[in-house]
Amino acid sequence: MRVSRKDRGPRGPQFTSTFWKEFCRLLGATVRLTNGFHHQANGQSERANQELEKALRCVVSQDPLSWASRLVWVEYAHNTLTCSSRGMSPFQCVYGYQPPLFPSQEGEVSCLSALANTRRCRRTWARVRVALWRAVASYSAWANCRRTLAPEYCVGQRVWLSAKDLPVWVESCKLAARFLGPFLVEHVISPTVVRLRFPAIMRVHPTFHVSRIKPVRLFLLFNTLFIFLL
């Protein structure tokens, strides 16, 4: 088994258990847990799971109990579907050719020379890399049109936390506070991700994207210190 130095996975009970933490520590791996609200971390995986679930639901609509036998065809359809960003299917990105659907097509893609197969894969990977960088540049240009640079946070800084998607029990959700806190920044994981210091009563994962927090503004008026949320 091969484990990456930085394992990125969902935040389920099997991944947050003591055994899994100790297992990763002994392997020298750093676990980076994510959830459905942090699309910046593993949005492609979340989107792929949604597409597979949607396709499987359509295939087994008449007989839901046959999903296990139909899953292989959904997997084949997904691996052979041409992606707009890469310009080719996932199977072609890995092996350099499209998988055959019928036995009569096997002769067109079979290659007995390992050297020729390796060269073909390298040419395919080079094309995919250029296509992906082109797609990333195009998506970033459109996405950054209305975005502003996030403020730089430091350890010990006080911030407000957005109450959206947090398990906060209030009598009126419409009139509840939109931000909670202030909380202290315990660790700056990256320019876009920080870890906050929560009290023991809050059973929430302390890592958040910078879009969910706002810095605390302090103002001194008539020798009185005021805290504002801007």
Automatic annotation (TrEMBL):
Annotated ranges, domain Integrase catalytic: 1-98
One Pfam family here: SH3_Tf2-1
InterPro entries: Integrase_cat-core, Retrovirus_Pol_polyprotein, RNaseH-like_sf, RNaseH_sf, SH3_Tf2-1
Protein name per the record: Integrase catalytic domain-containing protein
Native source species: Coilia grayii (Gray's grenadier anchovy)
